Amino acid sequence: MRSIYLLVLLLISFSWSANAQKKNKKATEETTDPDSSGVVSNKLLPTTSPLLLFDEQAKKEKKKKEKKKVKKNIFFGEKTRKGRIRQNLRDQVQYTIFNYTSNKKIIDPYIRDIHWYDQKDRMIRTKDFDPSKGVLLHGPYEKFINETVIEKGMFFYGTKHGTWLTFDTRSVLTDKSHYVEGWPKDSRTTYYDGNNKLIEKLTPIEYELKEGNFYHFHENGQAAVIGEYQYGEKVGLWTEYWNTNNTTAIRKREIQYQEKPFTKNFRPFIRAEWDKDGNLIYRNIASN
């Protein structure tokens, strides 16, 4: 009887140990394997479409504000400070003069490039803005080589805004582009409704070519497809998302495109797929 009792205890102990090992193994896999779950943190992925202000009424209101008396170092109603960076490039000296704000404004997560000044490294970055490390560019911006202006424009909370000009070292205009708070002015927007309120697709356009981040939304405003164009070509990882009615963001499928445009002999392939609960159902082993 005693031996049977000990055997039962051993079996229960073994069962607990096995279950614990399985849980630990699953937890380890989920933390080390980015494909183990299709659920994406809302902090990393916006689930609702942005509010675009490309309409004529918004433009008129902005022009009225800009026509008001300009105060020193105040741009778009925001108090700014001036910054300056000097770099020696061979036998030339490059200067960058810019304005910035310490306002911790929430940035539109759909904008591809957010320009900010890294105060520790004393350089301007365009990715991964961290308010604890730097400040957003806001107001006029100019870049010089020696005493010749090679680029000038205006920033609005880290995004390019208005007309931007680029020159060569002989002051000849080489490029002229227009932006609306980070969006290329020629970007194409389609809607689900006739009132232009429910955004269907946002296609970035520069010089008649698709250039920048592309977004397709479900009718409720949740992101359905996110990808990037360069020179009219799809590049990098394009991700499709299940419609979860904005409760969370769950990946549906990832398609890998060329990393650089015009790459020869590259064929896009499905990298991974998940079901509606975020469980992995397919993964291309060759992509690991």
Word description of this protein:
The protein has about 290 residues and is mostly beta strands. It is about 15% helix and about 45% strand. The chain has two domains: about 35-50 and about 185-288, no CATH class; about 55-185, no CATH class. The protein contains two helices and 22 strands. The strands form four sheets. Strands 1, 13, 14, 17, 18, 19, 20, 21 and 22 form a nine-stranded antiparallel β-sheet that branches. It is globular, with a radius of gyration of 25 Å. It starts with a helix and ends in a 5-residue tail after the last strand. The model is unreliable at about 5-10 and about 25-30 (pLDDT under 50).
What's the structural blueprint in terms of helices and strands?
Elements: H1 2-32, E1 39-40, H2 56-67, E2 74-75, E3 78-79, E4 81-89, E5 92-101, E6 116-118, E7 123-125, E8 134-145, E9 148-156, E10 159-167, E11 173-180, E12 183-184, E13 188-191, E14 199-203, E15 205-206, E16 209-210, E17 212-217, E18 223-230, E19 233-241, E20 249-256, E21 269-274, E22 280-283
Antiparallel strand pairs: 1-20, 2-3, 4-5, 5-8, 6-7, 6-8, 8-9, 9-10, 10-11, 11-12, 13-14, 14-17, 15-16, 17-18, 18-19, 19-20, 20-21, 21-22
Write a short abstract of this structure.
This protein is mainly β and 288 residues long. The protein has 2 helices and 22 strands.
Characteristic key phrases:
single chain, 288 residues, mainly beta, nine-stranded antiparallel beta sheet, 22 strands, 15% helix, 43% strand, MORN repeat protein, signal
